[in-house]
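sry for the spam today, last one i promise. struct tokens for design, 148 residues
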């Protein structure tokens, strides 16, 4: 997976905030969509440097990528087109592994290579209602194996 393009996708979709803020779901967040937890060193920060934001983003992408490997298997995931890999990681980054795992029909469609069905499941979800254009881009990447 092209990590630089993944970072660009997430920065486009999440934005960059150097100070803590409440995301649309009401969670305390900082950086590029990094949810602050009680154990998180970012929890005590009034603001972060761009370098610190970059380190959080790298770690958060690695976490989402690890979830993708667990859900699809590393070999199967790595066999997907880069745009499809980034679509999956984008959703996991946004939703978290547990909520993404709830997309059982979409996951089954991806595993079966039924990309149109996977895209339809994405677009027919509450996720799509909540994130709008982001879901449209993710579904396009799933369906077509390339960026819009």
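last one done:
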């Amino acid at each position: 997976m092209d990590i630089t393009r993944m970072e660009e996708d997430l920065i486009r979709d999440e934005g960059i905030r150097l100070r803590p803020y409440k995301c649309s779901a009401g969670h305390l967040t900082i950086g590029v969509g990094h949810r602050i937890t009680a154990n998180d060193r970012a929890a005590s920060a009034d603001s972060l440097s761009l370098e610190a934001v970059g380190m959080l983003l790298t770690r958060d992408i690695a976490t989402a990528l690890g979830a993708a490997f667990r859900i699809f298997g590393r070999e199967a995931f790595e066999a997907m087109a880069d745009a499809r890999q980034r679509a999956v990681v984008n959703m996991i980054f946004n939703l978290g592994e547990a909520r993404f795992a709830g997309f059982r029909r979409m996951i089954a469609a991806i595993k079966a290579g039924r990309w149109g069905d996977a895209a339809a499941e994405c677009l027919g979800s509450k996720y799509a209602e909540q994130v709008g254009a982001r879901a449209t881009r993710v579904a396009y990447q799933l369906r077509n194996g390339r960026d819009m």
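The chain has one domain: 3-143. ok im logging off now
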